[in-house]
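User: Please fill in residues for this 311-position structure.
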């Protein structure tokens, strides 16, 4: 089956909507690619398929082939222009989403549970993925029909331990925001992982600050630390906190390269940024200038090392 071309599968989960799962999935995928891995992204948030918008490929359509669908390419394996005097070889990135199939991106998906379940199973069995190192699955909030169908299908067609013959269900990255109301909902997702024996690779606390586009300050306007406390209570790894960066939003919405005031620091790391907000270059190339990239570079190195340790 098509999943046979996939080496590792990582779920991106949250018990609450609006915490930024798709944003986290996008940046994990870009960072994995920048580290040289071949990556696929599967968007099973059927009523809010936003992955095509994040990657700037909304107008793309999937192609039919004998046996299934061919996912949409975001970029091919290649070498990016020098940055800090060093060239960077990146892995190919492709994705699949219901957003590529709908006639219009504003169409509402009004489906009952059985149809959602069938669509999720079809995505897992009929997408003709190339040889990829990591498949990231962006999920809807909660623990609904899509999650049950997803896990039932994955558990039948993957190995609980690394195998040369079957894809490995490595585990899940759980996303929250710092506020108590979000934490209370996301705790249910961690309990869901416990009950279904899905390994939690780490918790990401999103929207834990604000990177000001006019000064060099990163301010914790929504508080910070709730995600770390939750991870400690559940004895699962805490990957780190991610602030809101308007420059990343502008990169997604307008395709412009991130620019920051001199001296901007995020999590103690000074941000280089670009000299001007140029629209030139691949999306992944412009992401290298984003303040969030060094954070995700650290997250992904930990995830990859963790998965390799199990292997």
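Assistant: Residues filled in for all 311 positions:
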């Amino acid at each position: 089956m098509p999943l046979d071309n996939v080496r590792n599968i990582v779920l991106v989960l949250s018990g609450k909507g609006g915490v930024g799962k798709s944003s986290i999935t996008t940046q994990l995928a870009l960072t994995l690619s920048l580290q040289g891995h071949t990556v696929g992204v599967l968007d099973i948030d059927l009523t809010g398929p936003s992955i095509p918008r994040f990657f700037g490929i909304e107008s793309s359509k999937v192609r039919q082939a004998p046996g299934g669908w061919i996912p949409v390419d975001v970029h091919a394996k290649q070498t990016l222009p020098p940055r800090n005097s060093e060239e960077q070889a990146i892995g190919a990135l492709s994705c699949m989403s219901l957003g590529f199939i709908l006639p219009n991106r504003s169409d509402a998906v009004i489906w009952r549970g059985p149809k959602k379940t069938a669509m999720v199973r079809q995505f897992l069995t009929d997408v003709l993925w190339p040889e990829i190192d990591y498949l990231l699955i962006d999920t809807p909030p909660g623990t609904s029909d899509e999650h049950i169908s997803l896990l039932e299908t994955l558990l039948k067609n993957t190995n609980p331990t690394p195998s040369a013959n079957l894809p490995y269900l490595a585990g899940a990255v759980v996303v929250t925001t710092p506020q108590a109301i979000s934490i209370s909902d996301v705790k249910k997702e961690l309990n869901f992982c416990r009950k279904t024996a899905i390994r939690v690779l780490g918790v990401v606390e999103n929207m834990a600050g604000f990177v000001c586009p006019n000064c060099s300050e990163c301010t914790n306007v929504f508080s910070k630390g709730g995600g770390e406390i939750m991870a400690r209570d559940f004895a699962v790894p805490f990957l780190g906190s991610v602030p809101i960066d308007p420059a990343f939003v502008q990169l997604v919405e307008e395709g412009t390269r991130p620019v920051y005031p001199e001296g901007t620091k995020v999590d103690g790391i000074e941000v280089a940024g670009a000299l001007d907000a140029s629209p030139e270059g691949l999306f992944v190339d412009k992401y290298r200038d984003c303040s969030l990239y060094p954070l995700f570079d650290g997250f992904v190195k930990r995830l990859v090392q963790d998965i390799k340790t199990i292997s």
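For context: The chain has a mean pLDDT of 90.
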